[in-house]
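Worked example 2:
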Amino acid sequence: IITDFLKNPLIYTHVLKIDNLVSDILTDYIILHLDFNLKTKIQGDVLVLSLYINNKSNYVLEDFTYKLSWKPKNKLTVIDKKEEVKSLDLHEKEAISYNLKIGKKGVAAFSCIISFINPIFKDRKMIKKIFLRKIQLEK
């Protein structure tokens, strides 16, 4: 009987809106319980970055992935990268370290792009970009 209602475009559109709203609220709630710690050190023309992510909740995040990103891209070049993954559900601390060559002076803005399986709607992957901080680059 419910599937008959969902065939109506008006009802289906509103169900999708509710689905998206619940997913957005859930994602924001989960992010509140994640601790992002970006440590930086400039050594000459090299920026050494370490990103630590810690899940402070009792929630298990399935298929959790993360990626450090920065803008503008042309100011920094990756020399090397190390990842330390402790668990696939992010229930322990995760760490990623970069050595980046500073190409141009100025400010670089760092963010972390995370993704995980939606705990309620398992067929959805949640993706969110979290601003970490801006860093003044000098050679």
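The chain has one domain: 2-137. The helical segments are 2-6, 9-32.
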